[in-house]
Design a protein that fits this description.
It is a single chain. β2 (436-439) and β3 (442-445) form a beta hairpin. α7 packs parallel to α10. The chain has helices at residues 26-37, 44-52, 56-79, 85-94, 96-135, 144-165, 171-198, 233-244, 252-256, 265-294, 307-313, 319-357, 376-393, 397-425, 446-465, 467-501, 538-546, 573-576, 579-594, 609-612, and strands spanning 11-16, 436-439, 442-445, 507-512, 527-530, 554-561, 600-606. It is α/β, with parallel strands linked by helices. The strands form 2 sheets. It has a 5-stranded parallel β-sheet with strand order 4-1-7-6-5. A two-stranded antiparallel sheet has the order 2-3.
């Protein structure tokens, strides 16, 4: 008995609207965020002191305390049930022009995260090698900048290949790295006060963070150099905070992990945010202050790119013990800083995937790898941009830090501005930034407004105080803006052509939050066939030819792979089933029709295809 052919028009596809995720505890979520955020402890203090002078540690500590306010911005953003991705959210709040700029600044942030982290790791390695050779009275010394640049390229290529294969770092590995990092932090918190006590007090105290104690470096003023603006007290403080703000870099990772946090989500996200902020304030803020108190002023500039290594070598105790701890600090630094490269690639890949899903990037970029199923073309672009950035920097951490601070503050500002605008457009926030008052029935978000204004002031100050970063950042933003605009135009024309030409099957999409056996018209013992590449369906043909439909049903499934980047937003229905899946299932239907067999069709979004299957 021959089975009925597949109905060509209106074939049903069951589409899961909830991404299949492996939920994690707030401890694991915190470790993922801190693997990025806490890495700034290794370079933020040195960069800030080079820019603003000896008062820098207090500004770094102030920024880390301000991170609690930024945490609240991300909590409110994540608490809103939003389908559509970053571009759609900001577009709905402030229009497509600002939306493209916000995505460009976020990508600029991610692209810089990798290079500054891994170059800093190379600086720590180079510093350790030179310390060891000096202790052995060997004349051999390596150039820290060239060594760190070469090391950075090698590490970037390594994580590029891992991401091509889809082998992302697990939350368990991030937790282990943070456990090791915590051991280092605890040793510092014990050894630094002991050193101060044994020496009868600190070698020196960082001067108070007031305008008269701010001494900007020649390369820290940009277009403000030679003008009267830096002499204005409040502006000088804002400029100093702008040079210190990169110590809060990595906060966007908090949004990435939101959807993977176990229930109750919002409660666990609050706990995660508090853990992250407290840990960062101690590991980055307090230890930076200890470094300024213990390392003599005369030699501290030597450790501007290797601050924690310098602190380890100036603690009280035998040289062998200090050198051993220095080795441990470098090992921890290489682990956490190199891991930040992977986080940046995942984040940038996630943002660009969401932009493509929003129709602002041509589908060519999202073509899956024929073997690994990853969006390899996007990963290629990210890795190439990061390697070019490393080469242009020549291993100079300060130059990378200035550019990174530029991207970080604009990303934070546009995020806060979007949340502030959405406060008046939407009323479904489960969490609201504190300090809200009502006047004549109108809610005035004082806390959120003040945070947005402050971030805006720092962003504008950075625009003029970081000449090279501004030129590079504006050029990067303009290029991406043009690409997004052209891509959106191409996608719109393509959609119009599809509507008028009907070149592919039209499917009846059955959207379901959870897929159960009753969702599909199949009997127990059905054969599941996974497909992803429309040009590689020979396995499906064999199943269709050999299966006896009286005994077994056939379910053809594809996994709509979703990156964890920018994960605070869920996908819209039109993003779960794109033109790529439509073309794939059109080929499946055509093949099933030729074999005169019926098939059930299933599309499931997931961050991991194997877990989904």
């Amino acid at each position: 008995m021959t089975s009925q052919p597949v109905v060509k028009q209106g074939a049903k596809i069951v589409v899961a609207t909830t991404v299949a995720l492996a939920f994690i505890s707030f401890w694991r979520a915190s470790s993922i965020v801190l693997s990025d955020l806490a890495s700034s402890a290794f370079y933020a203090g040195g960069i800030a002191e080079h820019a603003v002078g000896r008062a820098a540690p207090w500004f770094v500590l102030a920024v880390m305390l301000f991170s609690f306010a930024v945490r609240s911005v991300y909590l409110e953003s994540s608490s809103m049930f939003v389908r559509g991705g970053v571009y759609v959210v900001v577009r709905d709040a402030m229009g497509p022009f600002i939306a493209r700029i916000s995505v460009s600044s976020l990508l600029f942030d991610y692209i810089l995260t990798g290079p500054i982290s891994v170059v800093s790791a190379g600086q720590y390695l180079a510093g350790l090698i030179n310390e060891i050779t000096a202790s052995l009275h060997s004349p051999f010394q390596i150039s820290p900048n060239w060594f760190s640049a070469g090391f950075a390229v090698i590490v970037t290529i390594y994580f590029w290949w891992l991401n091509i294969q889809g082998m992302h770092e697990s939350s368990g590995k991030a937790l282990r790295i943070m456990q090791i990092t915590t051991v280092m932090v605890v040793i510092f918190l014990i050894w630094c006060p002991l050193t101060i006590l044994l020496r009868g007090g600190p070698a020196q105290m960082p001067p108070a963070p007031i305008p008269s104690n701010i001494h900007f470096a020649e390369d820290a003023l940009g277009w403000f150099k030679g003008t009267f603006w830096p002499t204005i007290g409040p502006l000088a403080v804002v400029l100093a905070l702008g040079h210190s703000l990169l110590s809060m870099s990595g906060f966007e990772t908090l949004a990435q992990v939101y959807r993977e946090i176990a229930y109750p989500k919002l409660k666990n996200l609050k706990i995660t945010g508090n853990i992250v902020c407290i840990y960062a304030a101690v590991s980055t803020g307090l230890i930076t202050v200890f470094a300024a108190m213990i390392i003599p002023d005369a030699v501290r500039p030597k450790y501007v790119d290797n601050l924690l290594g310098g602190l380890a070598m100036h603690l009280a105790g035998p040289e062998v013990m200090r050198l051993g701890f220095h080795v441990f600090v470098v090992v921890v630094g290489v682990l956490i800083l190199s891991g930040a490269v992977n986080t940046s690639m995942i984040g940038a890949n996630g943002v660009m995937n969401r932009v493509a899903e929003d129709g602002v990037l041509v589908d060519w970029f999202r073509k899956p790898h024929p073997r690994f199923g990853t969006t390899y073309r996007i990963i290629h672009v990210i890795a190439i941009l990061q390697i070019i950035t490393i080469a242009l920097s020549g291993g100079d951490v300060y130059l990378l830090g200035e550019a990174y601070a530029f991207g970080v503050v604009w990303s934070f500002f546009l995020k806060a501005l979007g949340v502030l605008v959405l406060r008046y457009h939407r009323h479904d926030q489960e969490y609201k930034f504190p300090l809200n008052i009502r006047v004549a029935g109108v809610e005035i978000p004082i806390g959120l407004g003040m945070t947005t204004v402050f971030l805006g002031a720092v962003a504008i100050a950075n625009l003029f105080s970081k000449r090279i970063a501004t030129i590079y950042g504006v050029l990067f933003t303009v290029v991406l803006f043009i690409i997004f605009t052209i891509s959106e135009h191409i996608n719109r024309k393509k959609k119009e052509a599809i509507v008028h030409g009907h070149p592919m099957e039209e499917f009846n999409l059955d959207m379901q939050t959870e897929v159960e056996s009753s969702s599909l018209k199949c009997r127990p013992g059905a054969i599941l066939v996974a497909v992803r590449d429309s040009s590689n369906l020979s396995h499906l043909r064999q199943v269709l030819q050999k299966t006896n439909m009286r005994r077994h049903d056939i379910v053809v499934m594809t996994v709509r792979q979703v990156s964890t980047g920018a994960g605070e937003y869920q996908l819209g229905d039109n993003q779960l089933f794109t033109s790529y899946e439509q073309a794939l299932f059109s080929k499946v239907v055509e093949m099933a029709e030729k074999e005169r067999k019926t098939v059930e069709l299933l599309c499931l979004p997931s961050t991991d295809p194997f877990e989904a299957i």
